[in-house]
What does this fold into?
Amino acid sequence: MSRDLESLLQTIADRLTGIETRLSLLEGDDVHPESIGEAGGTDSFFRQITETTSDIIVEAYADGYIEFISQSVQQLGYSPSELIGTNGFELIHPDDLLGLQHVLSQLPDARHTTTTSRVRNSQGDYVDFECRINFLDTGDPHSIKVIVVARDVRPRQEFIRQLQDSVKEKEVLLKEIHHRVKNNLQIISSMLNIQSHYFGDPRVKDVFKECQNRIKSMALIHETLYMSKNLANIEFSGYIKNLVQRLSTSYREASGKVSVTLSIPDVTLHIDTAVACGLIVNELVTNSFKHGFPGDHSGTIWITLTGDGDHYCLSVRDNGVGFPKDIDLSKSNSMGLQLVTTLSHQLNADLEFDKMNGTCIALTFSDPDLPEHR
It folds into this structure.
């Protein structure tokens, strides 16, 4: 409920304080304006509010007896005269009655509160109402009265239901899109595999294999999203684990002598960030498998992600033979290293290259699609 409405309700309660002749003034047509005085101005204001709102406005005692109820109660099939003087608790669903009475027992310490109750209409059906209850100070501590503004929440519930149905429908469509993208990427990968058999040059075959692995890296993102409840973000740890397993299978000879150690916490990244990071890991791990441990060399590849939820540092390090001392990542002719540089720019990441004791490439970035970076 908005602050404006809360203020309005409080104004109503304040203006009605101490007026015991309210009902007769509202219902009497033969009351002279000069006899109404200040109270008449108050009741005129009150009547205007009650006649122009679809909410049901009730003035009642804390024990449930109704002293005034607005014309809008007709939406439940009652007239005001039918209910004035009766106990409103009789209209409350039995399962909601204790809760409502407990709320009222907190008055006057709680000046106002909001609760939801099911109210019986004239046909005997129960309707959900949101009830805003305001304490009305009569000056008599033994006579606690309240102003209740009750609103039918069915239109809001129906609107929420429609929104939920719409969201579910869009989730199904997005899942189907991710599934189809994954299948299409797998088809492309299979086509490249078939095409590679037409070439005898091992270097050409390696190019095809690298392209396949890049495509599989992207396909894995869409496969993960298809299986996930969250269609915009990736649980990065599981994704990288699956990616490394597939690379190890692709480079069986090298992976037999090289172990891979993962140190990645449970972090969720947006799909765009995850795709870029996944491709970078794909390129760097592939490079380590192919060039980091030639001949009988063996060793370890470490993949690490650290961060505080604001900034992250992703590093891929190995203790292999390392890069040539004079290599410059930004000027390298290697497509893989060029891709790493391009993707780091896409992430607005700071890229660090350490050639001591093997190779370590680290990039520091933030996820621009997290709420704190929007």
